[in-house]
Amino acid sequence: MTTEKLFRIAIALKGLDGALQLLGGLVPMIVPASAVTGFAHAVVTRDLLGDPQGTLARHLELAAGHFVEGRTFAVVYLVAHGLIKLGLVWALARKVMRAYPVAAVVLSAFVVYEIIRAIHTHSLALPFFAALDVVIVVLVLREYRQLKRDRVAA
For residue 118, how many other CB atoms are within 10 A of its CB? Predict the structure, then answer.
């Protein structure tokens, strides 16, 4: 598979990621906090997770509480990340030369943030996403160099 194809696949995945983040940021804006806590309470009180005082029940209620507390941050974070990624994907797909260095810097910043969050939260998914972003940064830089060479040769 050529680097060009890998690059196209990578930016398509990043575009999908950005769209999902944007959607994930919009949903908490629509769903009232009372619906989230009410759902968690209903699941726990109906013993759908086993013992209402058990580990799963406590985790669900704790997660619902964190969702309500961190809602504004989550909305801003997800919407901003989604829009940034979609904007970069749009520019890279149209081969806007100035977008390549910007994309490399922004995605590198995402990698640093993902690693820091992974250390603090012990997330297993964040290192995977950080590694994927590193691969995408490499592909973006390779594509940028190739486009510059092609423009000089033309």
Answer: 17
The amino acid at residue 30 is I
Question: To the nearest whole number, what is the mean pLDDT of the chain?
Answer: 82
Q: Are 106 and 88 in contact (CB under 8 A)?
A: yes
62, 43 in Cβ contact below 8 A?
A: no
The span from the CA of 57 to the CA of 61, in Å, is 6
Alpha-carbon distance values, 67 to 17, 30, 48 (Å): 21, 13, 20
Q: Give one DSSP letter per residue of 27-71, joined into a string.
A: HHHHS-HHHHHHHHHHHHHTTTTS-TTSHHHHHHHHHHHHHHHTH
Element (H, E) at 123: none
What is the model's pTM? 0.70
User: What mean pLDDT comes out for the span 92-98?
Assistant: 93
In angstroms, rounded to a whole number, what is the distance separating the alpha carbons of residues 154 and 151?
5
Q: Which of 21-30, 64-73, 76-85, 127-136 has the lowest mean pLDDT?
A: 64-73
